[in-house]
Design brief:
There is one protein chain. Helix content is 28%, strand content 23%. It is α/β, with parallel strands linked by helices. The strands form 3 sheets. The protein has a 6-stranded parallel sheet, sandwiched between helices. Strands 10-9-11-14-13-12 form a 6-stranded mixed sheet. A two-stranded antiparallel ribbon has the order 3-4. α2 links the parallel β6 (72-75) and β7 (95-98).
Length: 349
């Protein structure tokens, strides 16, 4: 754990990125006890500033020597930079919470969602991995059900916002929407499409479209994102042979991911029991009132910290099955908030 102090020196790797900005906002919101905050980024961000607690802090260029005197590193600068720089941070005496995929499946690095497996934090050797955003929001309701019975199988389809791919991808959706705004659409397909030059970060147009893959395809025809969900969920829940299959879809939504989750359990769990289990599980907010069309949506989850669950129903095609709809802000609980919750455990545990 981190040596106990009244205040801590914290470095943020990737301070000018989408998750980095959330780190700054959430640290301030939660009044994290900070003495020095050191924003770090690539050469491209040299001389930029970030706002924190009423001050503009100059961004420093990330180097091997950036971590002197730092207690905690919050990293969201990509896997390559994490692999390159976090070992230097550890050598300098810092504990690192890494939001990239660099160390998630390393058997010597704990992969943590604080509501689910906080005990794993104590096993760290200087680096703690933050799971993938889509995994984080899914494991909370699964863990809530798992308190009552074993999980036999999970089938998930994700509907992931463009912010999960970074700031430039948000701008790509915005530019495409603006290009099409005001055009007569009617039934002419060509009226719905943008010029080829406007398709850059994504493999296809994202405005008014769905793209049924996220990240690269693997040899098994699943994508890297889909296999992350499989492998990370097994590690977090401590069930290495859990049967889980995922389909990940990019949708034209700015913030918050949505997931359709089907869970097969060892023993029967009724809808009412499932709702009760989730209402009593930390980090979950149940919104489930079908009569009034009240259920979680990305637009209402944006900027919120909870994982929202609704549309809970018993699977009529399966003896012991549950369907549910799970929504969370991918930049908060799916990234920055979860990492900061880990940091809070480090200083209080």
């Amino acid at each position: 754990m981190v040596t106990k102090k009244e205040k801590y020196n914290v470095a943020i790797m990737g301070a000018t990125g989408a998750v980095g900005k959330q780190f700054l906002n959430i640290l301030e919101e939660r009044n994290f006890p900070i003495d020095e905050l050191r924003p770090l980024a690539s050469e491209r961000s040299k001389d930029r500033t970030v706002a924190f607690r009423g001050k503009n802090l100059k961004v420093q260029v990330l180097t091997e020597n950036s971590f002197g005197g730092i207690d905690i590193v919050l990293a969201s600068a990509g896997a390559a930079r994490s692999k390159e720089f976090l070992p230097h941070a550890v050598d300098s005496g810092a504990v690192c919470v890494d939001n990239s995929s660099a160390f998630r499946m390393d058997e010597n690095v704990p992969l943590v969602v604080p509501e689910v497996n906080p005990e794993e934090i104590e096993t760290h050797k200087g680096i703690i991995a933050n799971p993938n955003c889509s995994t984080i929001q899914m494991v909370l309701p699964i863990a809530a059900i798992k308190k009552e019975t074993s999980i036999k199988r999970v089938v998930v389809t994700t509907f992931q916002s463009v912010s999960g791919a970074g700031l430039q991808n948000i701008l790509e959706l915005e530019n495409q929407v603006m290009a099409l705004c005001g055009k007569e659409t009617h039934f002419a397909l060509e009226k719905h499409t943008v010029p080829p030059g406007m398709v850059d970060k994504f493999s296809h147009q994202i405005a008014y479209n769905l793209i049924p893959h996220i990240d690269v395809f693997k040899e098994n025809f699943y994508t890297k994102e889909e296999m992350k969900m499989v492998e990370e969920t097994r590690k977090i829940l401590g069930v290495p042979d859990l049967a889980l299959t995922a389909t990940c879809v990019r949708v034209p939504v700015y913030y918050a991911h949505s997931e359709s989750v089907n869970i097969e359990t060892e023993k029967k769990i009724t809808r009412d029991k499932a709702l009760d289990l989730m209402r009593n599980f930390p980090g979950i907010c149940v919104i489930d009132d079908p009569a009034n069309s009240d259920y979680p949506m990305p637009i209402s989850a944006e900027g919120k910290d909870n994982v929202f669950v609704g549309r809970v129903r018993e699977d009529e095609s399966l003896a012991n099955g549950l369907n549910m709809w799970v929504v969370a802000d991918n930049l908060r609980k799916g990234a920055a908030l979860n990492a900061i919750q880990i940091a809070e455990c480090l200083i209080t545990g």
